[in-house]
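Regression report. Comparing outputs from two consecutive submissions.

Submission 1:
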Amino acid sequence: MAVSTLPSASSRPKNPIQRLLGLSWPWRVTLGYLTIMLLLPVAALIAKASTETPAEFWRIATSPVALATYNVTFVTALIAALINAVFGVLIAWVLVRYEFPFKRIIDAAIDLPFALPTSVAGLTIATVYSDNGWIGSLLAPLGIKVAFTRLGVGVAMIFISLPFVVRTLQPVLHEMEKEVEEAAWSLGASQFQTFYRVVLPPLLPAILTGLALGFSRAVGEYGSVVIVASNIPFKDLIASVLIIQRLEQYDYSGATVIGTVLLGISLLILLAINLLQAWGRQYEL
């Protein structure tokens, strides 16, 4: 396949349409696909939300219920992503560095949240963590209630976003040479110093990538959360469920306004994480 590049600056037509027609087919297909699948839906969402006056847009976007759902959605998703960033490193490390019985089965089970319908995931979590469930019955005497609380929302977000961290880290760990760690040990470094100064820096970009993917997945989750949460405003109602509630009330403008705010905050947080990724790439092998 021939290498496809944009025309050189000297031969590039000045008319935008001529420049577009002068692009190679891979460029045309890429631009067309991204326009249809990404840009147009986002533009339609913003266009619908912009039918409201600025004052009305601000009133809907900053209503007490909306602010409470932003708090539950983004803070819980960020905490879930951070927890997975820690335990995902540990799980990926064990799966790559150790040999043990049923390793392939456990490795394949990591992808279960990808394949499992989110409603089934929510039903499973609600059953296990309910007051009479396997885990919930152990936590209930301690005064810890998981199902139908914000803690249950966090558990659901952790469940559905775990594979993103593990699958992002595994290829990097496979590429890391164990001899580098052995050299650090031979020079007198402790296990903690070896991990902190030798192992962690090359892993940092992959950890941040997995964190960003997991956070994005958790923010957009609906199917499992709507089952495991009580969906009560100011308690555990997330923004996605609030949008559905607005649509059920035929409040299309209100739903699109909240969706637009959700989109904007997500983009800002992902931009910040991408800047962290760019900073972490200086430690890549």
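Submission 2:
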Amino acid sequence: MIYSDMSRDIRALLDSHGVPDKEVYLDSENSGMIFPEALEAMRAAYLESGQGHPAITNRKGWEAYETLYTSTLALAEAMHCKPDEIAYTHSGTEANNLAINGLAMTAPEGRKKIVISAIEHLSVVFPAEELKNRGFSVVKVPVDREGFVDQEALAREVDKETLLVSVAPVNHEIGTVQDTRAIIEIIRDRDPGVKVHLDACDAFCKVPLDLGASGADMASFSGHKIYGPKGSGALYVREGIELKPVLQGQLSTQKLWPGVENVPAIVGFSTAATLMQAHAGEYLGRMSRLRDGLIDGILGTVDDTLLNGPSGKKRSPDNANISVLYCEGEALTIELSLKGVYVSSGSACSSRILEPSHVLLAIHRKYEEAHGSILMKTTPFHTDEQIAYVRSCIPEAVNRIRSLSPFGRGG
């Protein structure tokens, strides 16, 4: 499809859809809302303090450098690390690629084994698998039915040939909160020379995360996952860890990522982190309460539904992932969209190629159970009234899709 046709088709689709009277956005896994304070701070940076190039020797450049430095101090405080240990990227995906490929470029002879869990984000899975073309081996450690890493299997796989273990403290899709401390202790016990990377995009500001005390060597972050701007990300690289840049070009202030820094986006990222830290009790308490209300409401009113992932404190405070049997997830997202309820089906990366989520298959969901999943995430912006509206819409939407589906109970 050429872009001119695509534009015409999308406009026709939007015109046909219309704007519902009520709208509730629950798709912050893929893209989402931003704190007004972060947006205002970015606006000021675009117009004033972040206009210049932070590596250029003129007044605007020095202003941008000062703004970048101030934002980095705030992020370092939130991450519990040193400012010099933060390398900026433009997304969590870029940070994950930099961690895996940048470390692989320094791999000594005899250490060409990458260990990841079976439920990692595709921005971890794909670069790891690509390294097979360069002589690396990749091992995926299984998880249980709630998504917890099999620690005995992990211990068996980590050996003297292992270069890196990469595990997400919080799974992006089913919200499983791993025992990161136990995982790192296992790795260190097996071989202190193995490097540890945490894809912390979904953990940052949602669960306790002290990089300095964790023993991790690298950790990835994404601004939009904490209600900052899209296009902002970072990789924590512990002091003394050697990485090589994976992109080549003129360096600015960042030695691992060439090109000019997006200073306004970094300002928004740091502002969002500061807000989440300052209001953690209020925000996380509300998100957990709304999450549980959403999950309990759906499981209690819609037959043949399954919660994917654990419950309570072992689950991320924002995550609600439910499989609706006898229903296609993609059809359900559209039906709900017509009611102004915006959710995603499985993981966004999987839904674009219409294959069942590898995360749901890894926790032993059947194909039809994985295909019928919807993912929703609560935020500090949501209200009880909005979640009640979502709960009222879902039974009707499910009944309609089931009545039309060839996979329905009578199909």
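Expected: both submissions complete independently.
Actual: both completed, but the second showed a warning that disappeared on reload.
Relevant detail on submission 2: The mean pLDDT is 94.
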